Fold each of these.
Amino acid sequence: MKMTRKTLPLAIAALISPMAMGEDSTVPVEEMVITTVRMSEPLRVVTDPRQPRQPLPAHDGADYLKTIPGFSVVRKGGADGDPIFRGMAGSRLSLLVDGETVLGGCGHRMDPPTAYIFPESFDSIEVIKGPQSVQHGPGNAAGVVRFERNRAPVTESGWDVHASALGASFGRHDEVIDATYKNPRFQLRGTATNASQNDYRDGDGTRIHSSYNRRSAQVSAAWTPDQDSFLELSGGVSDGEAAYADRGMDGSLFDREHLGLKASFDNISPLINKIDTQVYYQYIDHVMDNYSLRSLPEGAKQRAMNPDRETLGGRLATTLRTSAELEWVLGLDVQHNEHSNRGSMNQMMMPYQQMTRQTDAQFRQNGLFAESSWDFRPDQSIKAGLRADHWTARDQRQQVALGMMDSAPNPSAGQSRSDTLYSAFLRHEMQLEALPAMLYAGLGHNERFPDYWEMINKESVDSLSAFNIESEKVTQLDVGLVYSHNRINGSFSLFYNEINDFILIDSTVMKPTMGGMMGMNMRSATVARSIDARSYGAEADVTLALADNWRTEMTLASVRGRNKTDDRALPQLPPLEATVGLHYDDRRWSFGGMVRAIAAQNHVDPGRGNIAGQDIDITGSATVLSLNAGWRPSEALLFTAGIDNALDHSYAEHVSRAGASIPGFDQTQRVNEPGRTLWLKAQFTF
Ligand SMILES: [Cu+2]
């Protein structure tokens, strides 16, 4: 590729042009330890969850996303953090597991969807940034994350086995086995994982109430009656327990059972390229209590809560090719879920197991979507989509809980509400002629139905129920570029949005207690409240191949936002952060180091935030150094090791939850991150 002078519109081009002289083939960099995931095409980030990554993630899905610029995780303990993308948490970030919607059961958000995801049992994690897709379910305002398993056609019979074992500081050990027997007709796959960790210590040596253990097992059987048909039945169970440093209870049961059936048919006619269908069922049973994983304060009673959720869903999509340049995906998806509660304030006297479950809410969503991709010129394409969702929710609570002890009649008891919501996007992608770069610009609109945690689990400003809170509408501009050439790979993405009826969770509201006179007995209430907001930010990644197996990697992520209604900072936005890494990799040996620098966050709004957490205070800056090494003695074997937070720095992420007072533990302001963590991982693939 020749460089011409007339097209250097981007500052970055001037910087990189001396290196862009060689052949156009991109050298694939297969890191042994992933510290950064690059954006490889416009708004799309894909990563292999089996590759070791640093910092060492917890067993669950949230921590795996941390290596993608723009993601942060709300820490509550050792695991089960809530993922945030560009400062947007909860149902603003859609999470799909093999195409299935996973919704946790815990009204207090102990179990975000990622708590039930065991990433090493998947083949890929894909992130689509922004409201720039409509075919992966509703509500992906900030983006969508898809944990997927491969379904490549099988040509030879045989076994695929992946096994790994990990040992780390704080008594951490993980074991994974994933085995597939396949032939061109049948595939049988079984996966089992086990992960556990004791309480970790932060950089100051303070013990954090954070131990956990988790187990999962999954089997799937696939049948390929002919080259173009595929049928798969899959099912799985998982279970576990986890200590929480940010609250008065721990999770003593995280039970998930799921069953799914998928069918796909390819090359049906010259017009119909493909039909994909799936149906699924899942059941989540969760228990939190104050006695299983911690000692009870003197005189306190054993309390337990046992929510559950049942979800049924399905999807049908067909891919049409109306010409060589124009492809359509048309389809529908449906989902129905029902949540119930039961609990005991005195487990010794009245065990929750003997109480009847009370359904408190039902949700139903039916969606229709159409997405198209038109390569109208060899170097340019237009992608567009439109979807409509019909939502129905029913409030079945008779009573609303006011704190631990008090309750009052639910003002919206028995009510139903319905909404039809629309989402759309339009994006232009252009391959530049003079540079090996792709530019994109997209405009997206997404309307999000309020979720269980916003409607059912919160009050509103003037009522004990937020059941009738408005749907949230975001309109966002996404622009950026992806650059890929011999020695340099990189991407830059920018976004700006306006959000109408942003659902703010505000815990600074004072209300009179029931029966108390106004102003006499006040209680603090957590309400869901609609505001207008805006946010904007950027992510960047650059990998520069240096001479002789050396490379350097840099990333940057920043987001800012404003609560326009109250003229305050939009809360729960992570501060500016950057990473710089230097790595050696000769495909047999690798070693590297990475510095992560987190700026101070002074734009805060204490007491306000989202369903995952609220701002506490301003947060100081932090710098964390991590080191790693790898050895690949053969194709099948890989050993990796690392020291995370090598300088044993004591710090907390800005979006962390506040530390709670727990008997036997020192209370910290936030839930601090782990101190120096050594880990060693062995994996075997054949
Ligand atoms: Cu819970």
Amino acid sequence: MVEYVRGSQMDKWHWCKNCTQYPLYIYQKTTKEPPSNLCEQCKTKEYNRTCKC
Ligand SMILES: [Zn+2]
């Protein structure tokens, strides 16, 4: 199951642990895909299949 996390209210949602912007301190998490504000880097990683969940 994919877990989406963000480090603050202003942060984008990340789900790849190897994303360089993956938050150290998790402000919020959800297992439902957020409707907006998804991290571009995570998207790219998923597309390239280099995403580590
Ligand atoms: Zn990310």
